[in-house]
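Researcher: Re-running this chain for the archive, since the previous output was lost when a drive failed. Same request as before.
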Amino acid sequence: MNEIITRLASKKDVEDVATLFDLYRQFYEQAHDIQLAKSYIHARIERNESVIIVATIGNRLIGFCQMYPAFCSIEAAPIFILYDLFVLPDFRRTGAGKTLLLAAELHAKQAGFVRLDLTTARTNVQAQHLYESLGWIRDDVYFAYSKSVFV
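Model: Regenerated structure tokens:
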């Protein structure tokens, strides 16, 4: 197998990233909707609202992670929310996820961000092992809440 290369996504990657983004959403039990995925990814890249890092082997895009800039009031500094991480099933256990996470960390450091935060499903044990192996600390102090405001 060839080397896994990471880079920032650009406008030319919208179609390929959207395909993976649609699969990512399906993993989280959302309906297949490639048009929604294309529109969403295009808007994030066009408006520079997120950082999308892609992993490739040769010319094939095999995974991505997406981070949103935010701020931490306690640290009075910028942070990234690593919201999406997805690797095609055939390329899992190749180190692609680890490579994407390390690229995200490097990008955050170089951009002057002080922390990365993420959440994952309690049942996504495989991902939890990966995060912890890279030094991510699970928060056992705070509860996360969310509320839908669009019904």
